[in-house]
Amino acid sequence: MDIQEISDKLEIADVLSTYARAVDTRDWTLWRSVFTDDAHVDYSSAPYGRAGSRDEIADWLSANFEFITMSQHYITNIESRIDGDTAKVRAMFYNPIQLPGTDGLSFCGGCYHHDLVRTDTGWRCRKLVEENVWFFNNPLGGTASAHPTGS
Q1: Under 8 Å between Cβ of 9 and 2
Q2: CA–CA distance, 21 with 34 (Å, rounded to integer)
Q3: What does pTM read for this prediction?
Q4: 93 within 8 A of 111, measured Cβ to Cβ
Q5: pLDDT tens-place string over residues 15-63
Q6: Residue 117's closest CA among 127, 107, 108, 109?
Q7: If I label 98, which of 5, 22, 49, 91 is the partner at 20 to 30 A Cα–Cα?
C-alpha cells in the first residue's frame, strides 16, 4: 500500500465510526454529514426498515429512535476497495439495542455496503445498503425479515 491508500482507508474507517456515533447519540445532523446530499440509504432488510433519500431516512430515524432507549453499534472488518475518488466498502456490524415492546435486549448483525466518493470535505457515502443477516429477539419474530408495509 502506498501512503495515499493508507490515508484513504483510515479516513473511510473514520467515516464509518462517525456514522455509528451519530446513530447511537441520535445526532442526526452529524449522521447526515457522513452522506452526500443526494445519498440513498436502504435499511429495508431490518425489521420495520425502509429505504429512501438521506433526508427522508434521517427524519425517519429521528422519529423512530425516540422510542429506542439504547443502541450501540460496533463496526468491524472494514474492507475498502478504492478506485481513484470512489470506494466500495463492506463492513460488518453488531448492534445490541433496546426495542420497545420487547423483553430484554435485542441483538442484530450483518454487513453495511457503502459506495463512497471523495469530496472537497473528505470521503462521503452516496449509497448505503444494510444487510441484516441475523436478529435475536426480533420484534416481528423469526429472522431478519422486513416489515411487510415498510413502515
Answers
A1: no
A2: 11
A3: 0.89
A4: yes
A5: 999 999 999 999 999 999 999 999 999 999 988 899 999 999 999 999 9
A6: 127
A7: 91
